[in-house]
Write a structure and sequence with these properties.
- The protein has 248 residues and is an alpha+beta fold.
- It has two domains: 99 residues, Translation Initiation Factor IF3, CATH 3.30.110; 94 residues, 2-Layer Sandwich (Alpha-Beta Plaits).
- It is 34% helix and 38% strand.
- The longest helix is centred in the C-terminal third of the chain and has 29 residues.
- The protein starts with a helix and ends with a strand.
Length: 248
């Protein structure tokens, strides 16, 4: 009787094991592979805007030199004070005229570098200009006041305008990405279903800088300086995005 019960239990256990093994190979099992996963297309999009600048920065400087460092500094300080005053007369407040560079350095003998023959003083201010038509006048008035260096003129965008142009560049980048994805999808007989992911790679505005001039050490002509003609150059705003499209 005991032996029969053991045999019965063994048969039941074996039957359960066989049922479990069979279920693993059943078409409706949980481990069935899903062959309906959609394809994806990954592309990058670029948008570029050529924006008209609405502000400029002009770097004006004074360079003086003398055998005596005090004399060089005093001459330089007097001229820079006059330049700042001239900018004030044009309506530029102190927060629009700021020091961007200052240095005092020795001038050494060209044949004997150990000997100091003079001292050179450089002082530069950057003037922020919102009316681009005034750039030439700013330079001429600065020259009248003693400036003998124009290091650079930088054309750019105000913060608010830069945001507007960056958004426009992003929109163009999105259009570019969509166009690329459509071309790829049509080539492989795919149909774009939706955007799976999108990320911003970079968005920036490249200010245009024009190299300046220097008349340091050259006597300035007498009389008022003529305002030079200045033609602003467009500011390039560029955006790049990465997009992944889900297709079927």
């Amino acid at each position: 009787m005991v032996r029969s019960k053991k045999l019965y239990g063994l048969v039941v256990t074996l039957a359960i094991c066989l049922a479990l093994v069979a279920s693993l190979y059943s078409p409706s099992g949980a481990t069935a592979v899903n062959n309906t996963a959609n394809s994806t297309i990954a592309v990058s999009g670029t948008g570029t805007i050529e924006a008209e600048p609405n502000q400029a920065k002009v770097c004006l400087g004074v360079e003086t030199q003398s055998e005596n460092v005090t004399d060089a500094l005093n001459e330089n300080s007097l001229k820079m004070t006059n330049i700042i005053a001239a900018m004030g007369n044009l309506g530029y407040s102190k927060d629009k005229v700021r020091t961007s560079y200052f240095s005092i350095s020795p001038v050494r003998n060209t044949t004997d570098y150990t000997k100091i023959v003079a001292y050179k003083v450089n002082n530069e201010v950057t003037v922020e200009i919102s009316d681009l038509d005034e750039i030439g006048e700013v330079i001429s008035k600065a020259a009248d006041a003693g400036a003998n260096n124009v290091q650079r003129i930088e054309f750019g965008l105000t913060e608010d305008e830069e945001k507007v142009q960056k958004n426009e560049a992003i929109k163009k980048a999105c259009t570019d990405a969509e166009s690329k994805a459509d071309a790829i999808a049509s080539s492989f007989d795919l149909v774009i279903q939706r955007v799976a992911s999108v990320s911003e790679s970079s968005v920036y505005a490249s200010s245009y800088r024009d190299v300046g001039m220097s008349n340091a050490g050259v006597p300035m002509a007498k009389g008022e300086a003529i305002a030079p003609p200045i033609s602003p150059k467009a500011v390039e705003v560029r955006a790049t995005i990465a997009v992944v499209y889900e297709c079927s």
